[in-house]
Amino acid sequence: MEEYKEIATPARTKAILDKYRLAAKKSLGQNFIVDTNILEKIVHAGEVDERTTVIEIGPGIGALTEQIAKQAKEVIAFEIDHRLLPVLKDTLSPYSNIKVINQDILKVDLKIFQEEYLKDAEKVVVIANLPYYITTPIIMNFLESSLPIDGLVLMMQKEVANRLSASPGTKAYGSLSIAVQYYMDAEVALIVPKTVFTPQPNVESAVIKLTRKKDAEVIVKDETVFFQVARSAFVQRRKTLWNNLQVAYGKEPEIKEKLQVALDQAGIDPKRRGETLSLKEFGKLADALVEQNLVMQNNQKN
Ligand code: SAM
């Protein structure tokens, strides 16, 4: 019998790419993993078992998909690149628990997806070696959706992983840390060397594990205001909260007065910088601003 070789080896990956005359597309963030050891660690971090339905983003030529399929009940994988469909059909043929959907993950209606595919799912985990050019929108779409996700294990640029898991007072802490940590506990599970990819990316990589918080850390009156305030506090990182809030809400005397009342109510010194505020403090501030009926004038995205 022919010896079975895993997809994630340099030799097999090269053979697959040669067979289909494929070159990795940089524009789609295609960096394929050629190290089974790393893949096993990723699946392990996802605590995947025979009850688990895994959603994968970007299966590529199937290296990670294969390792997930060995442990999971089923894998549903979204791949945007239609060139990879015949490849995946071939490489994943030994597995009967994988469904590949040829769709841009950012265009998937997650509500319809949930109704169609997750009705009977007991435990749902998202696992991916993400296309780095759209890491943040992918994560936020999943977190803001109503999908019953228990956790996410995601490979991304190390610098982004550090931002997601950053604590207040650190350089990496910002509105992305707050947006993610509002929903999930975040920890860096693995630092991954460039050498496990082909082609090798230009940046360092890390795997982050996001686990749903058992109890909400902050409960706010208006989530939109909470996220707006968190964003506005970092628009000019080096400036004080007072400065950034005035840029966002306005500099008119009556607005300044209300801002001052809100900060007092929240017990926050206006001279502090946004990067020193905890999630709870942002929550208190957002609620106090709502109470003052303040409406943001410059709702800048960063
Ligand atoms: N999972 C494979 C691995 O680990 O070797 C490939 C990972 S590669 C970093 C990212 C994959 O995401 C590629 O297969 C790419 O085609 C796919 N991709 C890029 N943009 C996408 C999108 N918007 N929706 C779905 N898949 C996408």
Tally of strands: 9
Order of helices and strands: HEHEHEHEHEHEHHEEEHHHH
So how many helices?
A: 12
Mean pLDDT: 95
Low-confidence stretches: none
By CATH's scheme, which homologous superfamily of the largest domain applies?
Vaccinia Virus protein VP39
Structural class: alpha/beta
Overall geometry comes to: elongated
CATH architecture type of the largest domain: 3-Layer(aba) Sandwich
Radius of gyration: 22 Å
Main sheet record: 7 strands, mixed
Q: What amount of the residues lies in strands?
A: 15-25%
Query: What are the bound molecules?
Result: S-adenosylmethionine
CATH topology of the largest domain: Rossmann fold
CATH top level of the largest domain is Alpha Beta
**How many domains comprise the coordinates?**
2
Provide structural commentary:
The chain has 302 residues and is an alpha/beta fold. The protein is built from twelve helices and nine strands. The protein has helices at residues 10-19, 36-45, 63-71, 85-91, 110-117, 135-144, 158-164, 175-181, 223-232, 241-249, 253-266, 279-291; strands at residues 32-33, 52-57, 74-78, 98-101, 123-129, 151-157, 184-192, 197-198, 205-212. The strands form two sheets. Strands 4-3-2-5-6-9-7 form a seven-stranded mixed beta sheet. A two-stranded antiparallel ribbon has the order 1-8. The longest helix has 14 residues, at 253-266. The radius of gyration is 22 Å and the shape is elongated. The N and C termini lie far apart (56 Å).
